[in-house]
Design brief:
The complex is a heterodimer of chains A (154) and B (661).
Chain A: H1 2-14, H2 30-41, H3 59-73, H4 78-89, H5 104-130, H6 139-153
Helix pairs in contact in A: 2-3, 3-4
Chain B: H1 2-30, H2 33-36, H3 39-62, H4 69-74, H5 81-86, H6 92-113, H7 119-143, H8 167-170, H9 172-196, H10 201-232, H11 243-268, H12 272-295, H13 308-332, H14 347-377, H15 387-404, H16 418-424, H17 426-442, H18 449-472, H19 479-488, H20 491-516, E1 518-525, E2 529-532, E3 535-546, E4 551-561, E5 564-569, E6 572-576, E7 581-585, E8 587-590, E9 594-603, E10 608-617, H21 619-637, H22 646-657
Antiparallel strand pairs in B: 1-10, 2-3, 3-4, 4-5, 4-6, 6-7, 8-9, 9-10
Helix pairs in contact in B: 1-3, 1-7, 3-6, 6-7, 6-9, 7-9, 7-13, 9-10, 9-11, 9-12, 9-13, 10-11, 10-21, 11-12, 11-14, 12-13, 14-15, 17-18, 18-20, 20-21
Classes of the chains: A mainly alpha (154), B alpha+beta (661).
Chain lengths: 154, 661
């Protein structure tokens, strides 16, 4: 059992995760290949519907995968590879849009919505807390109420 | 002839829906019982007519009547029976007929089983429901008539997109629609209550079962869609944050929030205004989902209709109903009197926090889905919003929510003692911690977040057990008494706990799948082997096989474990000559702890085939958990306080008991 577990852990560590990547596409250097895969998942296949080039079997996605690997082999940093591709294909190719004037609302919107929600809850709570206590019924009122209820039940 | 009957029935249904929309509402405003009484027969009639239309369409598909243009475009005589049936809704026009059929079905159910509703409320609900029906029947008749004829009729149809020829996808749309459209009931109840200006605990009791039914269908529909994506799209993903998936996720999130807030209205008469707003939003998001999918503004496999006239029409429906609902809300909601007060730390407070986080999570999905369209519309650059965005926004919002799920049911109403509640959860927390440690021991090489994720999943499951144990006073009173209590515990409590546990199981599946999956891609000649984890796969043979309406290239893959033969797996590539498309059929072998997933790829021309093989740990749990959640919903739905007519019977019993006093 223990041998099985060690083997399993070892395999998890060694297995190069690949998806649409064809055999032969992968780079020899595992560290470089891992970076290529990381970058591939951030890039959109331009002719597909919402798939990353890492997931897509389209020929264009394959071209882009090879391009990413070429740039990495040429010694580019991750950021440089992304810049290189964006310069050719536009911001559309990025799965994760860059933070900028065009996307302030996109990136800040959800947090803003949460903040507004929390603020409304606080405002409501404070209003409720400062609201005057509802005066409780006097004993005479309670007696009258009981009489009405009894009357009604009969 | 039969197609014409179907068309005629749709026109008649529109007429009946118009009457159902106008007369009962006027009756309710004028306190005219006779006019209000029109609502029930009209709702039943409307459903019967739409059923006739649907059956006519089904008949056209079953008999392969290619003189009907829709059948010619979407069917083929050699298609297996099940896909002839599912072909009815595997296209734009037919799916809209299914949409109105389900809408009318809900109306008919209210008419049949709504005996316990006050007459005026029932009349108004059915009237609002009919107005939705009018809008969509008009849409069908004016822009998407399914019964158009072709002259001359072709000899053969063009077939159905092979991706849609799949048992999982055959029943995915009906469930999804039953969910989407079911939320129209919540909307109708909300509008009726706003028009009436009265909303009390009994309203929540009436609206909850409908919302719950819609939620169950939506849960199953989403699970089915995700399962389909998992085994069909050929790389084993289960959720892609695709706009069409998001379109179904948003109503689900808000329906979940609505289910929770309706509890507060029912039990404590608080949060009324917010609950009504949620009911309006839930259906609005269903409509937005329909718009996104049906108008073709999104390019996606789901968008069969790329026709601007239809898009504009649905947009019009959208504006009228969302605008109308929100306008009514703005006008009437201030009249709703706020109910019971509560301290921030209480069951109500916890449910409110649940609602806040769910609403914020929905906003994240909404912005992420629609922002590219919005930016494009205002002339900005084209951008893509992909999974990284949702991982950075949706996930951080839902994590605290998941952490709090077991705590909520332990808090008492009005004012709660957090320490006492936490004490009741000590055992669950301890067990979750141990589970996390065990996972860490097994998988210390994986991502460091994974054991934490599994800990959270275990916390949800054990937390649900703790809740039941606490309610049964398990181990604190004799076991026999506990079992007696179990029998009398409301089914809603069982259902809620089950749904929460199911959520934990889904989470475990997602964590296992994303953190530890093993992936191998390699080219194999026949006779060669590869290793996936501890499993050895050997490609024995690749051959051709004749399917009913396709030709398949089938790989025979031998699976061995520890030198022992386990099974043969048969991944296929299917070629559909009629549709001229190819589809990959992955072979999946599950042992409920993990899936072995094998895909046959291309031949490289030198006798070797690309084989993609995956070991997906805990993957089946995602869908098992989803089914458990839905099952929890079903249990909760069978709670006696929602059972049809239960309040009425109780009232009668009380009346009968009176003379004895």
């Amino acid at each position: 059992m223990m041998r099985f577990l060690t083997l399993l852990c070892l395999l998890v560590a060694l297995a190069l995760p690949v998806r649409a990547v064809e055999p032969g596409e992968a780079l020899k250097d595992p560290a470089l290949e891992a970076r290529a895969r990381e970058i591939s998942q951030e890039l959109r296949c331009l002719v597909c519907q919402n798939q990353s080039i890492d997931d897509s079997h389209a020929p264009l996605a394959r071209d882009l995968r090879l391009l990413v690997r070429d740039r990495l082999k040429a010694g580019d940093s991750d950021e440089q590879v992304l810049d290189y591709i964006v310069a050719r294909y536009g911001e559309f190719v990025l799965m994760k849009p860059r933070f900028g004037p065009d996307t302030y609302l996109l990136w800040l919107g959800p947090g803003l919505a949460l903040a507004i929600g929390i603020w409304i809850l606080f405002a409501m709570y404070r209003r409720n807390a400062t609201a005057p206590e509802v005066p409780s019924l006097s004993s005479a009122e309670i007696a009258r109420l009981d009489a009405i209820v009894k009357d009604h039940e009969r | 002839m039969i197609a014409e009957i179907g068309h005629f029935a749709l026109v008649l249904a529109l007429g009946v829906a118009l009457i159902q929309m106008v007369v009962p509402m006027m009756g309710a405003q004028r306190h005219d019982a006779a006019m209000m009484a029109v609502a029930r027969p009209a709702a039943l009639m409307q459903f019967a007519l739409i059923l006739v239309a649907f059956t006519a369409l089904l008949w056209a598909f079953l008999t392969s009547d290619f003189s009907v243009s829709l059948v010619a475009e979407n069917s083929h005589s050699t298609k297996p029976l099940i896909y002839k049936i599912s072909g009815v809704w595997g296209n734009h026009e037919g799916s809209m007929v299914l949409w109105v059929a389900i809408l009318a079905l809900y109306g008919a159910l209210v008419a049949l089983f709504g005996n316990n509703l006050p007459d005026a409320l029932r009349a108004r609900v059915l009237s609002v429901q009919a107005s939705v029906g009018v809008a969509f029947l008009l849409f069908i008749l004016l822009t998407s008539n399914p019964f158009l004829r072709l002259d001359p009729a072709p000899f053969e149809g063009r077939g159905l997109n092979p991706l849609l020829q799949d048992p999982g996808l055959a029943f995915h749309p009906p469930f999804l629609y039953a969910g989407y459209v079911g939320l129209s009931m919540a909307f109708s109840f909300a509008c009726a209550a706003l028009i009436e200006g009265r909303l009390d605990a009994s309203w929540a009791r009436w609206v909850r079962p409908w919302t719950l039914a819609a939620w169950i269908a939506l849960t199953l529909g989403i699970a089915m869609g995700s399962w389909w994506a998992y085994y069909t799209l050929g790389w084993g993903g289960f959720w892609f944050w695709d706009p069409v998936e998001n379109a179904s996720l948003m109503p689900w999130i808000i329906a979940t929030a609505l289910l929770h807030s309706a509890i507060v209205v029912e039990k404590r008469d608080a949060l009324k205004s917010w609950t009504v707003l949620l009911a309006i939003f839930a259906f609005s998001l269903s409509l937005i989902g329909t718009f996104l999918v049906r108008s073709g503004v999104l390019t996606s496999v789901h968008a069969f209709a790329v026709d601007p006239a239809r898009g504009v029409f649905i947009l019009g429906i959208l504006v009228i109903f969302i605008g109308g609902g929100l306008g009514l809300y703005a006008y009437r909601a201030p009249a709703l009197k706020a109910g019971g007060l509560f301290a921030p730390i209480s069951r109500e407070g916890a449910l409110l926090l649940n609602n806040l986080l769910l609403a914020a999570a929905c906003v994240a999905v909404f912005i992420g889905t629609l922002y590219p369209l919005f930016l494009d519309a205002i002339g900005g650059p084209k951008i893509t919003v992909g999974p990284p965005f949702f991982n950075l926004t949706f996930v951080p919002i839902t994590l605290p929510l998941l952490c709090m799920v077991p705590l909520g049911p332990m808090l008492s109403w009005k004012r709660a003692d957090v320490l006492a509640a936490a004490q009741r959860l000590m055992a669950a927390a301890g067990l979750a911690f141990v589970a996390g440690l065990i996972v860490l021991g097994f998988w210390h090489k994986g991502p460091w977040l994974a054991p934490l994720g599994m800990m959270l999943a275990a916390w949800l499951v054990f937390g649900a057990f703790s809740e039941i144990a606490y309610r049964l006073r398990l181990f604190r009173i004799p076991l026999r008494e506990s079992l007696g209590k179990a029998w009398h515990l409301p089914r809603a409590a069982w259902g809620g706990a089950l749904a929460h546990a199911g959520l934990g199981i889904v989470l475990a599946g997602i964590v296992g799948m994303t953190a530890w999956r093993i992936e191998v891609v390699t080219a194999l000649k026949t006779g060669e082997s590869t290793q996936v984890g501890d499993t050895v796969l050997t490609l024995e043979k690749v051959g051709l096989r004749e399917g009913p309406n396709y030709e398949a290239t089938t790989g025979i893959v031998k699976v061995e474990q520890d030198g022992r033969f386990v099974a043969y797996m048969l991944p296929e590539k299917r070629n559909f000559p009629v549709e001229k498309q190819e589809k990959n059929e992955a072979a999946i072998r599950t042992n409920f702890m993990s899936d072995l997933y094998v895909v046959l790829g291309e031949n490289n021309g030198q006798g070797a085939w690309t084989i993609r093989a995956y070991r997906n740990y805990l993957a089946p749990w995602i869908w098992i958990g989803g089914v458990i959640m839905a099952f929890g919903g079903v249990i909760s739905l069978s709670d006696r306080r929602y059972r049809v007519g239960a309040p009425l019977r109780a009232r009668k019993l009380r009346l009968n008991a009176q003379p004895a006093e």
